[in-house]
Amino acid sequence: MWINVLYQISRNIASAFIIVFAGFVLAKLLGKLTKRILAEAELNRILKKTGFKPISNKIAKTTEYLIYALTILFALQQLKITTIVLGILLTITISVIIFSIILTCKDFLPNYFAGFTVKKKLAKKIGKHITIGNVKGTLQHIGIVGSTIQSDEKYYVPHKYTLTKINL
């Protein structure tokens, strides 16, 4: 009885390894094949002519990664742990996305709202020399969440920092 169980488990593990190996080899081959087919079709040249960025490398990499993901799913299915792992991965992915959105809003919103005041006050100083905190230079551009100042180097100063460092 135990021997049959161990045999079944070892067979599933061996099958999963074979699936992963074959899938990764197939992913590399299909990624390169996709890149070569798109090169033969001269997709990059056509896109450059129309003013777009070349995307054949991105399409080839996307194909490769998609096959990697499918390979891993097939291997997990062979090990009979697909639903558990997918549930965990989905939970982690959603958590990371929510956390990223919260962090983005934490930085974006204060700078966005400070931008209304900064734009009104600094609009007449574009092209003139200004000092914001330790940053000195010529004000080149006032964006949605920050201003660009040019001196020896180009600096990007967030509006929230601008409000605290200069007298508007």
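^ that was protein a. below is b, sequence first then the tokens
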Amino acid sequence: MTELDVQVDNLRLELRRGIVVLAVLSQMDTARYGYDLIRRLAERGLDVEEGTLYPLLRRLEKQGLLESEWEVGEARPRKYYRISPLGRKALAVLTEEWNDIVVVMHNIIYGEKNV
């Protein structure tokens, strides 16, 4: 791996880190456990490691953006997360901000104005 490869990988991780919160919140309309969410995001093209997702879920819950409950059933207990009312409000704001960023970045990268 070249020095450029390492730098690009680090920049890629930095870029992706910011979108994971929006991606997670956008998928939490129904209760989901961690592995289900990892699979769902991967199916949509966003690979998220367990070591990234689980701390994020706990942080979002602590911030009041997610709610959780344990379900004891089949093989082992699972903690299910769902978006909270505060999380819905945050998701709406973040989605609007994301849409604005996409337009701005498109204009910057491709040189178009007021798309």
